[in-house]
Amino acid sequence: MSVEPFTRLDNAPEIRKRLLPYCRLKSGDIWIDSVAGHKVGLLDAADSNSVEKIFNGEKATLAVQDPPYNVVVGAENTDCLSKRNLADYVNWSKHWIENNIAVLAENASLYIWLGADQREGFQPLPDFMIMMRNYSDLQSRSFITMRNQRGYGTQKNWMAVRQECLYYTKGNPVFHVDAEYTDIPKILRQGYYKQVNGERTDNMQRSKSGNIRAGNVWVDVQQVFYRLHENVTGCYAQKPLKCIERIIKASSSENDLVADFFAHSGTTLIAGEKLNRRVFTFDNDPIFAELTIRRLEHFRKTGLTGFQCGNPFPEIDDVVLTVKKDESKTSNRRSKLSNVSKTAEPVLF
Ligand SMILES: C[S@@+](CC[C@H](N)C(=O)[O-])C[C@H]1O[C@@H](n2cnc3c(N)ncnc32)[C@H](O)[C@@H]1O
Question: Fewest CB atoms less than 10 Å from the CB: which of 190, 198, 216, 265?
Answer without folding.
Answer: 198
